[in-house]
Amino acid sequence: MKKRKKILKLSARHSLVGWIFMLPWTIGFVIFFAYPLIQSVVFSLNKVVITAQGRKMNYVGSGNFADIFTKDAAFVERLSNFLVELILELPLIIVFSLVIAILLNQKVKCKGLFRTLFFLPIIVVSGPVLNMLLNTGSTTIPLIEQYGVYDAISGFLPSYLQQPVQTLFSELLLILWYSGVPTLIFFAGLQKIDASLYEAAYMDGASSWVSFWKIVLPSMRGMILIGCIYVTVFLATSEINDVIILIRDYMLNVNKGFGISAAMSWIYSLCILAAIGLCYLLFGHERKTKVKHSYMTKSEIRRYQNAKKKKS
Amino acid sequence: MRKRKKADTNWSAVYVRGKSRLWGRPNHRGWLYQSFIYLLLISLGFVYLYPILDMFITSFMTLTDLLDASVKWIPTQFTLDNYKEALEAMNVDKTFWPTVLGALLPALAQTAVCALTGYGLARYDFPLKKLLMALVLVTFIVPPYILLVPNYMMFSDYGMIGTLKTLVYPAMLGQGTKSAIFILIFMQFFKQTPLSLDEAARVDGASEKRIFFGIAIPLAIPAFIISFIFSFVWYWNDTYFTALYLTGGKVKTNVSTMLLELQNFDAVYLEHMKQASGWFAYSDGNVANEAIKMAATVLTIAPLLLIYFCLQKYFVEGIDRSGITGE
Lengths: 312, 327
Fold this sequence. Notes:
heterodimer, A: 312 residues, mainly alpha, MetI-like fold, two-stranded antiparallel ribbon, 17 helices, B: mainly alpha, 16 helices, disordered C terminus
C-alpha cells in the first residue's frame, strides 16, 4: 500500500515536471494566440472606429463580410488570383522538390556541395530580395522567352488560364526557389526508407522505376502532406503576396479600419484552411491497397469466366 | 546454320550486358545513368544559382557596362562604387545592429523555448498532452494574419510598437514565427535519445534539470543548430511583421532594418540623393540603377550566406540524423 502511494506520487511529480517544461509555451499560447483569436472574431463582427477616447466598436454583424464581397472588388479579385496561382504552383513545387530530393539521395560525388547548393534558397528567399530579383528580371530564364514558348502556350489554353500560366513561366525560377524547404523535408523522409526494401524489390526483379512507384511514393505520402501544408502556408504568408499586402494596408488605413481587415483575414484564412484540408484529403490517410491473391493474370481470369459462361 | 544461331543468342546477351554496363543496377550504376544524374544535378544547380550569380555580377558593374547589352557575365571593369552607394543609402551603420539584434534575440529565445516545449512533449506524460500537441499543430496551420490585428492593438496599447520587444516577447513564449515547426523538430530529436540514459541518471540521483542540461541538450546539438539557423533566417528575412511592429507601417522611423530599407529602396535612395547633392538633385532621373539595387541586395543577404556556409556542415548532418519532420 505504501509502495503504491509512492509510485503515484512519482507519476504525479513526473507530470508536474512535464507541465513546467510546457509552461512558457502554454502562457504564450493563451496570450498571443487564443486571446487574439477570439478578439479577431469580435473585430470582424464590429465596425471599429478609432476616436480620441480610444476604440469604439459598433456591432454590425456580418456587415463587414458583406461589404468585402459587394463593395470592394480588389480583395475578391486578388484572392481568386492567389487561389489559381496556388493550384498551379503547388503541384509544380512538390514534384520539383521530390525530384531534387531523389537526385540528392543518389550516390554521387560532391554530395555536400550539391546539398549546400540546393538548400541555399532557404536562406535567400525573402520578400524584398525576391522583389528585387523579380524587378530586375533575374528570375526569368531568357531561353523561354526567346523560343516562343508563350505563344505556343496561349494557343492551347482557355483564356482564363493563359495569364496565370504565363506568369508561371516567367517566374519559373522563383518556383524552383520556393522548393527549398520541401526538398529538405523530402530528403529527410527519403533517408528514413529502409534500404533493405529496395534490395528486396530488386531481388524480385523490380526496376528502379517500379520501386519508385511502389516503395518510394507510398512511404513518402506523409512527407508529401507535410510538404503540401508547408508550401501552402508559405505561399500564403510570403511577403510578395497581394492579399496580405491588401490586408495590412486596410489595417493601417483609417477609413477602412480594423474590422474590415479582420474580416478579410478570416476569409483568407478559411480559404487557406480549405486548401490544406484538400491536401489532407488527397494525401492524408492511407488508401487500402487490394492485395491480389490470385495466381492468374486479369486476362486469364476473364477468359476463364467467359469459358464458364459459355458452358452454362 | 549453326553459326547463325549462335549469333542470335549473342544479341540478347549483348543487350543485357550492355544495359547493365551503361545503365547499371541499383547496387552498381553504369556510367550512362551516372552521367544522367550528374547532368540533371548540375543543370538544376545552375538554375538555382543563376539569380545569385546574376546578382553578384551585376552588383560589380559600372553604368556603361549595364547599358551595354553585349556585357552579360564578365564586366569590363570591376567597381565597388555600387556598394558604397548602397551602404550609404541604406544607412547600414544605423540599421545593421537593429537588424542583427532583431533576428538574433528572437531566434535565441525561440530556440530555447521550443527546446523546452519539445522536450516536455517528448519525454513526459501529463494530462492534456494530446490536446497540447494538437494545439501546437493548430498554431502552425492558422495563418498569422488572423492574429495580426489584435496583436498589433495589444502591442500598441502597451506602447511597445517600435521596439524589439514586439518580436522578442512572442518568441520568448514560444509563439514566434513558425514556432510549431521547431517544436516538432525538437520533439523528434528528443524522442531519439534513449530513455535508459535518463533512467540511469535518475538512479544516480540526478535532478530533472540536470538530466535536461547534462544529457538531453548535448545529444540534441544538431537540432539546436538547425532551429537556430532557420529561426535566424526567418526573422532576418521577415519584413511583414517587422514593418508593422517596428515601424508601424511608416517608411521613416528611428528603428529600421536593412530588409525594410531594401523593401523601400527607391524611396530610401531618393532620400539619400537629396541629402548628398542638395535638393535640386531631386528629379526623375535619379532612380537607383540596377547595379546599386543588386549591391544592396547582396549586402542584406551576405551575413546569412556567411552563417550558412559556416554552419552548413552541422546543418546537413543534422538533417541526416533525421528528425526534421515529425512522423
